[in-house]
């Protein structure tokens, strides 16, 4: 209950300051350039990595990237850049109960 109250207060403060949600929260931001480059910000970790499939864990769910010759060419604790022929991107969101546990 306290978490929700704090979250609502933080949302109000962020709205007043006009801060973008991806800056003040753990919500991932995904930028795609054509079919061959992708930037994922605010991720937690990489769960699987193959040249045809990358599974990325975020605070709100999983991001599955499918394609050919996929490579992580740039990565730090906040964002990662994926290159290769991106065929599809799938999202698996966590249920509210699951998200609180993670």
Question: How are the secondary structure elements laid out?
Answer:
Layout: H1 2-17, H2 21-24, E1 29-33, E2 37-41, E3 43-49, E4 53-58, E5 61-75, E6 79-93, H3 96-101
Antiparallel strand pairs: 1-2, 2-6, 3-4, 4-5, 5-6
SS strand fraction: over 45%
- How far the N terminus sits from the C terminus, by CA atoms, comes to 17 Å
Which regions have little confidence, pLDDT < 50, spanning 5+ residues? none
Order of helices and strands: HHEEEEEEH
CATH-assigned fold name: Immunoglobulin-like
Radius of gyration: 15 Å
How many individual β-strands? Answer: 6
- Overall mean confidence score, pLDDT: 83
Total domain count = 1
CATH architecture, by name, is: Sandwich
Q: Briefly note the structural class of the backbone.
A: alpha+beta
Share of residues in helices:
25-40%
Report the top-level CATH class: Mainly Beta
Which strands sit side by side, in order, in the main sheet?
A: 1-2-6-5-4-3
Q: Helix segment count?
A: 3
- Overall geometry comes to elongated
């Amino acid at each position: 209950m306290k978490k929700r109250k704090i979250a609502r207060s933080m949302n109000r403060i962020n709205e007043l300051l006009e801060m973008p949600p991806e800056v003040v929260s753990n919500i991932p931001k995904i930028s795609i350039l054509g079919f061959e480059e992708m930037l994922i910000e605010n991720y937690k970790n990489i769960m699987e990595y193959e040249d045809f499939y990358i599974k990325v864990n975020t605070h709100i769910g999983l991001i599955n990237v499918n394609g050919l010759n996929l490579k992580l060419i740039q990565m730090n604790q906040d964002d990662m850049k994926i290159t290769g022929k991106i065929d599809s991107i799938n999202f698996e969101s966590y249920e509210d109960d699951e998200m609180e546990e993670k």
